[in-house]
Write a structure and sequence with these properties.
The structure is a single chain. By secondary structure, the chain is an alpha+beta fold. The chain folds into two domains: 120 residues, Argininosuccinate synthetase, chain A, domain 2 (Alpha-Beta Complex); 39 residues, no CATH class. Helices cover 52% and strands 18% of the residues. A hairpin with a 2-residue loop joins strand 3 and strand 4. Helix 3 runs antiparallel to helix 4. The protein is extended, with a radius of gyration of 22 Å. The protein starts with a helix and ends with a helix.
Amino acid sequence: MIATLNTLAGSHGVGRTDLIEDRVLGLKARENYEHPAATVLLAAHRDLEKLVLTRAELKFKSMVDSQWSELAYFGLVDEPLYQDLNAFIDRTQERVCGTVKLRLQKGSVSIMARTSPYALYSKELVSFDSETIDQKDAEGFSKYHGFQSRVYKRFVEKNE
């Protein structure tokens, strides 16, 4: 699959990176990479994660991914935190599966569709029709969402 994706995505100019990198010793270096298969697979995987992981999991995972990458880049794979991060990642990935349809064009990967048996997305629930969600339930939320910000704004306007 990787060889096929490298050829296919590479022919569309997908997965080329030219960057200035800060190396461990403090040197800046210009790096050029070609990674068409990795770019496609990571795009599809991230999209599946968005479909099946909760908002809180996704937010925390972005921090975990950043820390994991730094430890791996610096070669600190014996650091206990590295194993801890792997445990979190492994747990979140247990339900990341499904199908993603992609378009490769002019150096980019576009997500066209996705499905998963663990999808948290529900077309029926987000339609806001009168049968699945009672829109009156939003009144209380709307009233109190941002409440502290409005109190602060009144305080500032009063004391100007």
